Amino acid sequence: MKSYLDLVPISAKVRRKQNSMSIICIVLAVFLVTAIFGMADMFIRGQILQAQQENGNWHIGIRNISDEDAKLIASRPEVAAAADYGVFNYRGGQGYTLSGKNVAVCGSNESAVTEIFAALDKGSFPANGDEALVTNNAKNMLHLEIGEQIVITMPDGSERAYTISGFMNNTVGIMSRDSYGVCLTTESFRAIYPDGTSSNPADYTMRLLKFKSTRNIQSSIAEIKQQFGLSDEQVSENTELLGLLGQSSNSFML
Question: How many CA atoms lie within 13 A of 175 on its CB side?
């Protein structure tokens, strides 16, 4: 080596190899980070979808409010869907039966089975108080068809007949308890309240709300509470869904 300048091409050659290796490492690191975040996003989306399927796609439920207040809340611009929801004999033991087997009797409106729970499988929501939706396990076990009648035996031994308007998907709770499920209109559901319940039928209907966006959901909840004078006991949050969305939540289960 006659001059230190002779080191320039040697250094450039070594640097070129190092730079190429650095670029390759950076590209691999970017792909790895992208894959990790992509898998995490897929996992979170899967958990949210599972929570929606198992617990319903709603954010808060409000107890003990009048039908008039419920309509006002449902008309708020940030509310995407609102539904009535009440149930008897969900865990069995209250004496409601269908063909000798425990049956959970639900009272709701159309948005409950089409938007909040997405439970409708075939047919349509009851058009009047004489119609009912039935879960698919009852359809299969009892060989039922749309247009046929079912007879629900009440705790006092009386019977109520309903025409099948459609069928609902089975739920985890229904299947785990080996029960059937029947969904009536809110009005028809209130007509079969057992003796000794409140004189105000709205007391036994939960109002489920789904918001258009979860960005300011806690502010919306606070505003609704303040406007309608609701206590913390009256407002329940969907723990599974809001928990996955990073919101604080309280447990709720009928």
Answer: 9
CA dihedral of residues 125, 127, 132, 136 (deg, nearest 10): -30
Is 161 buried (19+), middle (13-18) or exposed (0-12) by CB count in 10 A? Answer: exposed
Handedness of CA 47, 233, 119, 143 (dihedral sign): positive
Judge contact between 215 and 195, C-beta under 8 A.
Answer: no
pLDDT digits (tens, 9 = 90+) for 12-66: 565 666 667 777 788 788 888 887 877 776 765 665 555 555 566 888 889 888 8
Can you tell me the distance from the alpha carbon of 89 to that of 95, in angstroms, rounded to the nearest whole number? 7
How many whole angstroms separate alpha carbon 81 and alpha carbon 57? 10
Tokens standing for 132?
């009912």
